[in-house]
Amino acid sequence: MSNPYRLPAEWEPQCAVQLTFPHADSDWAPYLEAVIPCFVEIITAISRYESVLVICDDIDRVAAYLGGLPKDRLVLVDLPSNDTWARDHGGITVLQPGGNPLIWDFVFNGWGLKFPAYLDNLLTSGLQEQGILGDTAVQAGGIVLEGGGIETDGQGTLMTTTACMLSPNRNPHLDHAATEAVLRDRFGCDRILWLEHGHLDGDDTDSHIDTLARFCDPDTIAYVQCDDPEDVHYTDFQAMEQELQAFRKADGTPYRLIPLPWPEACYAEDGHRLPATYANFLIINEAVLAPIYQVPQDEAALQQLAFCFPEHEIIGINCRALIEQHGSLHCVTMQYPAAVGIGR
């Protein structure tokens, strides 16, 4: 019997993108003044193309920041949250036969019990209870899994990392083979590509794939390339590049690999390195939102993404504030396929 699920690629038609707005009771408290304009910029850009679902601690407060945006493109929902990483606490939508959507509500445990997540773990069920997801079924995913940990080409291939997916603080009862079996079952994939290398200093996620390598179409992978032999990341990222070169498509041919620039190192005030990465872009309807960091490599990164997505508008978003909490643009967003119908 064939698997009834298909995990759509990010470039397929969407109805909405979800964000969780930062507030003073989250880890953003010291950075609110800097990070709120970044969220507003992301929401504004998305609203040009599709609806935006924004989870708010206080709808009136958030609405005041978004007052100039078209109301028919905004869905504001009042729900309590621990933090703002919608990619990882958001539901993951698969399509069933006939195109009917199903949202998997996986367990989110703060990236392997690193941070509190008890409120974030209830957000998808909260959206369902408020009727925001319409008639779309929501089902418990049954394991700990974050959206930033998986990439798909929409055609049955999944890409992930061993460091994240096999983390002992996520699903210690599952070995490599059992983890693969669950991924195949939940997402209808018949091929799983595993990266064993690639880690950014400052990253809390145990090497989420969306910080390292991304499908741009079924034949193309954009990836972070470290070309500085003096950088502490160099050896590991050279090994990751070799792994990507060894990957093969279902027909046995290699992928078209597009290197993304290595950004100049960004540091927090206390001196620790922040996980700046150009791989953390978001594909939406007719556009790609690309993180930039006010460093010299930004323009080259935008040019590479324009090469990867010739049919899309490339929109640079200043995400320097986001990496202060060790994530970036893709990390704070989660798309819903068009079939879910949010905003209609």
UniProtKB/TrEMBL annotation:
One Pfam family cited in the UniProt record for this chain: PAD_porph
One MF term in the entry's GO annotations: protein-arginine deiminase activity
Record keywords: Hydrolase
Gene Ontology biological process terms from the UniProt entry: putrescine biosynthetic process
InterPro entries assigned to the protein according to its UniProt record, in alphabetical order: Peptidyl-Arg-deiminase_porph
Protein name as catalogued: Agmatine deiminase
